[in-house]
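Example for tutorial group B:
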C-alpha cells in the first residue's frame, strides 16, 4: 500500500509504532521499521545520553549496505531537558520526530530546517488546525481510548478522525483504540491515512516493558482501565492498588497538589519497566482487552496488512 503517509516517511505500510515511555527502545523501534512500518524511540523515559545510545543503536540495526531504513523519535514537549534532547536529535540526524504534550510552534521550524519530518499528536480538530498552521508534516489524532497521557476532551478516536479530516488537508494518522485489522480498515475508511499503535506494540516481544506488566495487561477485562489524574494530566491506567488510591482521592475532592504528592516520582517506571503491579503506574490503552498472545512486531504488522 502506498499513500501520503508512506511517501512522507519512506515506509512500506502506513503503520507507526507509538513512542511509549519504558516500552519503546531501539529493539522495538528497529523491529517495526524492518517490518515495513515506522518505529519510534520513546524519549519521554530517556535521559539525553541514553537517548543518544538508542538512536545510534537503532540506526546500526537498520543500516545495511550503507542504506538506513527510516525511524524516528517521539518527544513530549514538556520534557524538562527538551533543549538538550532536540540538540541530540539534530546532531544525530534523526530523520523523523513525533512531538506531543505541548505546542509544536517552537520546535517545528527548527527541526524542518535540518531536514527532519515532523508530526504532532493532538486530541481535537481545533489543535490539529493549529498544528497545520505551525507547519507540521502530519497530524496524529489520538482518541481517549489510548493508554498513557491523554487529551482532556475525552473524544473517542472514531469521532475524532472524521472531524480532524474535515479540518486539515495534511496527512492524518489515527491513534487510540487501534490494534486489529478491522480497526485499521475502519480508521482508513474514516479519513485517516495511517494508524499509530501503542498498546499492541507495548505488549509485544521486543518491547522493553517488564514481563509482569505485559502479562497483566494481556489479561485485562473490559472496563479494567480508567482515565484518571485529570487534575494533573489525564492518564489511562490499568486497575491496581495505585489506581484505586487515585480514585479514592479524586472522589473525596483532593486538589492538584495532593494528587501530585500521591503520584510522586517514578511510578510509570516502577509499573511498566520494573513490573510493580501494585504500586506502579500501569499505563495502557483500552484495546489491551483484545491483546491476548505474545507476538513479535513483525507478526503484528503482517496481520494488519495481510
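The residue assignment follows.
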Amino acid at each position: 500500500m502506498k499513500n501520503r503517509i508512506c511517501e512522507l516517511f519512506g515506509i512500506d505500510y502506513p503503520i507507526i509504532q507509538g513512542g511509549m515511555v519504558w516500552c519503546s527502545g531501539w529493539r522495538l523501534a528497529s523491529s517495526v521499521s524492518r517490518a515495513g512500518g515506522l518505529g519510534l524511540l520513546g524519549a519521554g523515559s530517556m535521559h539525553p545520553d541514553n537517548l543518544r545510545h538508542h538512536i545510534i543503536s537503532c540506526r546500526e540495526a537498520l543500516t545495511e549496505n550503507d542504506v538506513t531504513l527510516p525511524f524516528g523519535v517521539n518527544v513530549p514537549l514538556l520534557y524538562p531537558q527538551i533543549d538538550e534532547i532536540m540538540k541530540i536529535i539534530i546532531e544525530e540526524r534523526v530523520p523523523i520526530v513525533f512531538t506531543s504534550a505541548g505546542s509544536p510552534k517552537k520546535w517545528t521550524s527548527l527541526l524542518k530546517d535540518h531536514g527532519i519530518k515532523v508530526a504532532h499528536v493532538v486530541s481535537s480538530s481545533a489543535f490539529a488546525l493549529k498544528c497545520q498552521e505551525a507547519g507540521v508534516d502530519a497530524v496524529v489524532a489520538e482518541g481517549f481510548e489510548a493508554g498513557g497521557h491523554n487529551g482532556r476532551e475525552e473524544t473517542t478516536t472514531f469521532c475524532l478522525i472524521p472531524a480532524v479530516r474535515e479540518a486539515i488537508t495534511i496527512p492524518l494518522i489515527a491513534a487510540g483504540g487501534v490494534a486489529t485489522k478491522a480497526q485499521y480498515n475502519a480508521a482508513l475508511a474514516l479519513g485517516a491515512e495511517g494508524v499509530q499503535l501503542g498498546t499492541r506494540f507495548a505488549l509485544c516481544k521486543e518491547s522493553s516493558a517488564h514481563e509482569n506488566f505485559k502479562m497483566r495487561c494481556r489479561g485485562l477485562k473490559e472496563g479494567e482501565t480508567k482515565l484518571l489524574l485529570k487534575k494533573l494530566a489525564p492518564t489511562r491506567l490499568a486497575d491496581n492498588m495505585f489506581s484505586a488510591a487515585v480514585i479514592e482521592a479524586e472522589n473525596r475532592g483532593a486538589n492538584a497538589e495532593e494528587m501530585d504528592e500521591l503520584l510522586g516520582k517514578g511510578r510509570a517506571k516502577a509499573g511498566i519497566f520494573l513490573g510493580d503491579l501494585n504500586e506502579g503506574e500501569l499505563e495502557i490503552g483500552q484495546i489491551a482487552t483484545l491483546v491476548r498472545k505474545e507476538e513479535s512486531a513483525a507478526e503484528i504488522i503482517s496481520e494488519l496488512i495481510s
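The chain has a mean pLDDT of 96. Compare this with the pattern of hydrophobic and polar residues in the output above.
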